[in-house]
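your task:
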Amino acid sequence: MSADQQQSSIAKPQVIVNRQIVEDSWTRVLPAEDGSIAVPAEGKVIVPYRYWLEHRAELAGREIGVCFAPDDEPESLPVDANSFGVIAVDFPAFTDGRGFSIGRLLRERHGYRGELRAVGDVFKDTLNYLWRCGFDAFAVRADKDIADALRGLDDFTEFYQSSVQQPSPLFRRRHGDASHG
């Protein structure tokens, strides 16, 4: 088997985007053990937000996405959030919920309309809550079944609280008063 045949037979990672399982067209760039970052010369890449801040000029003209770490602040974004085709938010551990707030801020305060992707410790039990905070794409943990995780988006059919997806709380929707979100 030639190198090209081997390359084409390697399965590409999959993600959930808009409730569909698709091949991931983005490459997420992670720091090496020494902290260095090697960005591929071609293709769509998601780089750490802080790296993008420091290397914006050399990344100009490329199809770039950024990945917010839990301690990154969306308020520090020096450009329109919509200039990115994808914004990822890292969830390094199930117990770290700061990414939920980052997602909601990007959607509600910064008006981000592009793909908002949850990465890291992402699995079925978290998808519905992430979706309610504005996430529409999910890179499910490699040790979890992506099809099973997708079903997690439908675990609940009604919610009491307001959210990015449903701005009016249930009591307002029940009384036909959705105008007071």
